Amino acid sequence: MRALVQRVSEAQVDVDETTVGRIEHGLLILVCAMDGDTEAEARKLATKTAKLRIFRDDDGRMNRSLLDVKGAALVVSQFTLAADTSSGNRPGYSTAARPELGEPLVRHFAAHLAALGPSVENGQFGADMKISLVNDGPVTIWLDTQA
Questions:
Q1: What is the pLDDT of residues 78-115, one digit of tens each?
Q2: Residue 79 among the catalytic residues
Q3: Pick from 66, 78, 79: which is nearest to 122 by CA?
Q4: Known active-site residue 6
Q5: Model pTM?
Q6: What is the 3-state secondary structure (H, E, C) of 75-111?
Q7: Span 2-139 CATH architecture
Q8: Is 145 a known active-site residue?
Q9: Which of 6, 55, 79, 109 is catalytic?
Q10: Strands 26-32 and 72-77
Q11: What's the pLDDT at 23?
């Protein structure tokens, strides 16, 4: 699985002009299930994300995790993280999990993350979503269970 993690002071996802998920201080997490991923990868990625020390401590160092700061998470499925741009100008997405496999894995990721402690909001799988955020830092980290 892949994730693009952004430390945010706020983030929101809307579908058809209706807010479906909103958080304040925490992480916006764009998640992509890859072909061949299992629930084990979803749990591994959720645990890594929750423990990633990218929040400031009292000395201003990035030394605290989402769990430490009691932040929230907004999880949004993003199959385009599987983009293969090695040939031509049109990205290919054949390495992304098919929707019937990807959706349950993204849900499992979000559920495992919530079980670790943070409040978790979600986007809507397969929908045309509009995401707004205030990136804090900015801090943006790429995570991949295959790397």
A1: 999 999 999 999 999 999 999 999 999 999 999 999 99
A2: yes
A3: 78
A4: no
A5: 0.96
A6: EEECHHHHCECCCCCCCECCCECCHHHHHHHHHHHHH
A7: 3-Layer(bba) Sandwich (3.50)
A8: no
A9: 79
A10: parallel
A11: 98
